[in-house]
Amino acid sequence: MRILLVCERDEIKTTIRRHFMPRGAEIIQYYNPIKAMDNLDEVDPDVVLFSAQDFPRHWKPFLIFLRNSRAREQCVFVLLRGGDFNADEADKAQALEVNGIMWEQLEDRHELVRLKELVARYRDIGDARREKRLLPTGIDRVGFVFTHPERLDFVFGQIEDLSAAGVSFVAADRRSVMDLNVGDSIPVCSLRIGDHLLSFPAGVVRNERSLSLAFDELTTAHQSMIRAYVDAHAQRQLERSAHDEPTPVEPA
């Protein structure tokens, strides 16, 4: 799935990346709506997220241009509105066949859920963790710790499952993570995997019995390292089994 974001602010792109890239989406941002229109055929988006707050005079001609070549079912157009967006503007958007109008504060959990549900009506947004997962056992040398973004305390716990896209983590002290919300950014995370220690940011995608984090901006090298370790789990099991197998005793 390819998402075209027409917006001046990078923080909105960061939020979109955090929640849609782990699902296999490609995010392309244009800061200039005219250039976005010029390159529409080249980009060929499945979804367009357009900031009416940043470009109040451009979203109507852009939407008209889009609908001339792509119907509502072919390309999802979501208008991100700010505080100046009134009922008259909403009526015009509906007449121009907008798929949805969302409050632009996507850090808000309810708005983010609404956006995912809206896109999912028209497009398969996939599993947030399509990557192969590791459920650690005693043969796996893995560990995870992060710094709480507000209190700056270390949060320790156990990895429930791990992939190159994210981790499911059970905090040693559940109270230490109860104030983390979906969409929160965790700037400092450390992952021990085998003999390596990786540092990177992550984002909260679920906080229930366990805390689910999506890894933000992992380097290709780090992704490959995690995948290789996950894939080698079966080999480690074989090696452990061979090591534990009792040595036959020769008959006297």
Portion of residues within helices: 25-40%
SS-based class: alpha/beta
What is the average of the pLDDT values? 86
How far apart are the first and last residues' alpha carbons, in Å?
Answer: 69 Å
Sheet-strand content, in percent, reads 25-35%
- Spatial arrangement of strands, main beta sheet: 7-6-10-11-12-9-8
Integer tally of domains: 2
The CATH architecture of the largest domain: 3-Layer(aba) Sandwich
Task: Compute the number of helices.
Answer: 8
Classified by CATH, the class of the largest domain is Alpha Beta
Largest sheet: 7 strands, antiparallel
Low-pLDDT runs of 5+ residues are: 247-252
Word description of this protein:
It is a single chain. The longest helix has 14 residues, at about 110-120. Strand 4 (about 75-80), helix 5 and strand 5 (about 100-105) form a beta-alpha-beta unit. With about 250 residues, the protein is of the alpha/beta class. The chain has two domains: about 1-120, 3-Layer(aba) Sandwich (Rossmann fold), CATH 3.40.50; about 140-245, predicted glycosyltransferase like domains (Thrombin, subunit H, Beta Barrel), CATH 2.40.10. The chain has helices spanning about 10-20, 35-40, 40-45, 60-65, 85-95, 110-120, 220-230, 235-245, and strands at about 1-5, 25-30, 45-50, 75-80, 100-105, 140-145, 155, 155-160, 165-170, 185-195, 195-205, 210-215. Strands 7-6-10-11-12-9-8 form a seven-stranded antiparallel β-sheet. The chain has a five-stranded parallel β-sheet with strand order 2-1-3-4-5, sandwiched between helices.
